[in-house]
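Appendix B. Extra example for self-study. Work through it before the problem class; the solution is given directly after the inputs so you can check yourself.
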Amino acid sequence: MTLTPNPSRQRPNTDIYDRRESQVRSYCNSLPRQFTHAHGVWMYDDRGGRYLDFLAGCSSLNYGHNHLVLKQALVDYIARDGITLGLDLFTEAKAEFLQAFEDIILKPRQLDYTVMFTGPTGTNAVEAALKLARKVTGRRQIIAFTNGFHGMTLGALACTGNEGKRMGAGVPLADVSHEAFDGYFGPDVDTAAQLERRLADSASGLDAPAAILVETVQGEGGLNAASFGWLRQIAEIATRHNALLIVDDIQAGCGRTGHFFSFEPAGITPDIVTLAKSLSGLGLPMALTLFRPELDQWKSGEHNGTFRGNNHAFVTAAAALRHFWQDDQFAATASRRGELLAARLEHMAKQHGFTTCGRGMMRGINVGFGARAEMIVRACFHDGLIVETSGADGEVVKILAPLIITENELMQGLDILEKALVAVKSATFPIAAE
Ligand SMILES: *Cc1c(COP(=O)(O)O)cnc(C)c1O
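Solution. Structure tokens for the complete assembly:
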């Protein structure tokens, strides 16, 4: 049986938000409903509306909302008065997470990473990575890339490309050079070769970098996917110039591209990796910075944080690893869904004169400019599909469906998207971007 979404047409009463909540809020502006509960790929509002969630907490809900196995593990843990907040104390939950991470993720991939528990947000994991790279190399400069997004605290924000985000800093964002990502100047320009040339030339003005920080697929910056060859070149450049390679896998990791780490199919081994978003599996805050054991040159307490010991997240993270990652089954299914998604988006893009982007289950359709993408997002929402935009001008409609989605549900959502594309194509845009 095919379930049809049943969105409610009424906006909620937003008085309390208008009166008390800062206007800094953003997602709720294009998705104006009050949500009450969610399960799997579905979210429900307080007016009886039902929505397919193709945003999935910006890839924080790769296993869907309230997965039964993860939820049960947490409920059991709370019921027996398991430690909730542990600072960085040794706890049973932390040991079990580390054991699962070692057995299920690191060992089978022959990866040897020291695990650093940072504050529970992604940006904190990035800050820790940057600090460590600067400390270990004694260099200040970081190389980041055009359209990169790494978080909102000052160090990570300095590595973020987006002007709107950078404007919020209020202080100079220094010691980062934004080099051209793969494909930035079109398919014929080898931006890795350009970077190599600039680093090799003592008169280029580019300081020797502590690290090269890169996303393999740019989640917020328009779903640009780096080719594996380009990633290998960047890894070689980092090695040649004694810089550390940091892969920010906060959005692309945890299975989103069909592998636990997005860099696996490129055959590279970063010196440092950041993880957050879907790591806890249930949407609880948890972040990690992983690095080669030789890089563990921190002094005790040199980077800390009260909420590094979110034991509830450790419990659900360990449960997620055990449930989904013991064998290749889950990743293979996610890859297959990703191929279906790619084929369907490709078809739609061709029909309507747009282009596609992304990799695995992290893909989008570039509709040219932000106002059109926003109209598509709203049309989808009207029909019961939650999607968001990505890119410098928000010109990409991005699909981040939970990886546990069935083929049927995926097609249902894409039907809604296609209907919106058709409807919006005939719309006129008075201030359309050239
Ligand atoms: C979301 C994200 C971050 C920041 O994570 P927060 O939890 O929002 O601080 C950093 N890097 C990438 C690639 C992200 O997608």
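Self-check: The first strand starts at residue 35 and ends at 39. If your reasoning did not lead you there, revisit section 3.
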